[in-house]
Structures are given as C-alpha cells and as structure tokens.
Fold this protein.
Amino acid sequence: MKIFRTKVELQQELSGIRQENKVITLVPTMGALHEGHLSLINYAKPLTDVTVCSIFVNPTQFNDPKDLEKYPRPIENDIALLESVDCDILFMPSVEEMYPENDPEWHIDLGDLDKIWEGEHRPGHFQGVTQIVYKLFNLVKPNQACFGQKDFQQVMVIQRMVDIKKLNIKLLICPIIRSDKGLALSSRNARLSAEGKENALTLIKSLTYIKDHFGKKTIPDLLKAAEEIIASNPAVELEYLSICETKTLAPAMNIDPSKDYVALITAWVEGVRLIDNILLSH
Ligand code: PAF
C-alpha cells in the first residue's frame, strides 16, 4: 500500500493512474478502523482497479472540541488493517494540508436534510461532512466512492451535495455489518456491557417489525407497534423512530409506490447513543 500525506504527492500518483483509464474508488474514513470500515474496502475491491482510503479526523464536523481531541487515532493499527485487505493507496493528510490558511468558508444549501434527525442533534455536522468530502472528491476525482448504509442520513446528504455540485461520482452504499444476533456494528458498541448488547437488539427488533409489515399496515400503525417493542424494554430509551422517504428523509404519511423508504432509529442504551436503519421494500 502506498501512503501519501500531501495533496501534491497523491495527485501525482493518481494522474498516472487516470491516464491508464483505471477505475478509482475512494473510501473516506476518519480512521480508528473496524470491521465495518474494512467491509467498505472489501465491497469496493471487485468493482474497481484502484482503492484509495483516506484517514482524516475532520475538525469541521465535530460539535464539541473535546470530542475532536479525544477521537482515537490508532494509525499503526489502521495501516496494518488496510494492508490486510489489500487497500492500494492511503491518504492521510494533516489538518493544515486540508484546511490551509484563507480557506474559503463553506456552506451548501441542503434544505432540511442537514437539520432533521441527526442534524438536529448535531448542528453544523453535515456542513462539515460535505465540506471535507467535497475537498476529497475534488482531489481524488474518483469514479465512485463507498459509504456505509449505517450512516444513512450522511449518504443522502453527500448524494445531495454531489447533485448540487454536479459531480460525476457514483456513491456506493455498502450494507450494514451486523453481529450474528443483528446488532449493527459500531465502535460505540465497545462501551456496552454484555447485557447492554442484548438490550440493544431491541432496535433491530423494532426495525425488522416495520420491514416485515411494511405495505400491510398503515404507517401510524407500524410506528405505534414498533414503539411498543421499544417501550417493552425499559433499558432502551428512544430518541426518534421514523419511516421516511429516502431522498428527503421527510417522514412518510403514506406509501407512494414511486418512492423508496427507510426506517430510521436512534436510541440510548447504558448511556450510549445508538443509530440504526433498515431499507423498506414494497
Ligand atoms: O463517516 C465518516 O467517517 C466521516 O463522516 C467521513 C465521511 C469520512 C467524513 O469525514
């Protein structure tokens, strides 16, 4: 795996690759890699000639400077993991490299998409995400880029940015990796006890109920029954549960056959905020 720390070095390498008309896939990350990230690289590999992974803890997407400071940076381990899945190129720039002095202010009009759900909980977060992903897209100019379905709203926000900026980049949405019992993989799960992990399964139970009954019951009835599943476990505190149209993430009132839907959930277990989602077919 080739490792680059500057934009100039990376661009030199990529211009040679582009001249050979090779397909380039970008997998942007903030490091502290786990199985979920590696699944993005494994997803990309058969669909691409060259896989570029970026590791950059992006300051503009953090609401709390303490979280930014505390964010884990196990770089040697990350490099070993990327090598184990045959990643071709790692780009790991400094903050100064990505945000030079006099860097222009960033704002993109995402409508409600960056204000609802996760956006409400983390104001400005998705502006920071789109800012860095736009920079990485302009630099790498990939044919495609991989993002995990786990952060569904993030993918929709990035897709909106790609549409607004008219970028010719295909987003590949990689499936959620789950434990054998169905818990969505997340670095936050490490903060749960064994009992907490069992209780956290209530999230996927409620989402599965919605998926299994989607199109057979009305949306208010689906939500009521799924909320009852959550309420039956006092160890789980629901923050939001919604059935949304995928592109706008606006709550659905009824099912329009021409649209796609997703159920989104955020809940707390043992003081840990967990998010999950499931795509709904009709
Ligand atoms: O999902 C993440 O790890 C980050 O939000 C991303 C997409 C790498 C941008 O910093």
Summary: The pocket of pantoate is lined by residues 28-30, 58, 61, 129, 132-133, 151, 154 (CB under 6 Å). The two ends are 43 Å apart (CA to CA). The chain is about 40% helix and 20% strand.
